[in-house]
Amino acid sequence: MNIFTTIKEDIQAVKDRDPAAPNAFVIWLSYPGLHARWSHVFEHWLWNHGLKSIARISSQFTRFMTGTEIHPAAVIGRRLFIDHAMGVIIGETAQVGDDVTLYQCVTLGGTGNETGKRHPTLGNNVLVGVGASVLGNITIGDNSKVGGGAVVVDDVPPNCTVVGIPGHIVVRDGKRVEDEQISAARHKENLPDPIQEELERLRGRIGAVEQSYEEQGSGI
Question: Taking the model in full, what pTM does it have?
């Protein structure tokens, strides 16, 4: 596939996935995630043709210009959409499938304890939320979603939703996981605010303490 077909597909992917996307000309000029992705096409070609030093230098320039660091050796599929782009890191041995969406500050990184294939593999149509980290030689299956802020260190089957630190599955094949009763009751597949949940828990404890004092006072 030539670069012009890639650009056309990527612009259409932005239109399909970003409700705020303007016309194709503005998308082409103003989406740094696309610029990083297109630069990677060139840098990956350089890497594969033995020009690794030039590829690395170019990737650092791309990082400076777009806020996105994609190692030239990483394998990127078609129609990758990096929304907002800033702070995204894709490691050397990462593999990203087709129609993947990454939001800002996503890391596809290593754990520091591996050699060889040490970065994750993302299947097709995977979505990784804001600030999430997917670490190590693991696989995120097709059509799965990683919630914002999650840290995923284990394989995720296809058609799942993962949240939390460490990441755990709360939805599989469109159904809440039965053994995650607390998460299911709180509908964690909708990615609630953990701070709000903790405040609610503390309110409950304060209420129980106040009731205990009232009962003791009435018994005096």
Answer: 0.76
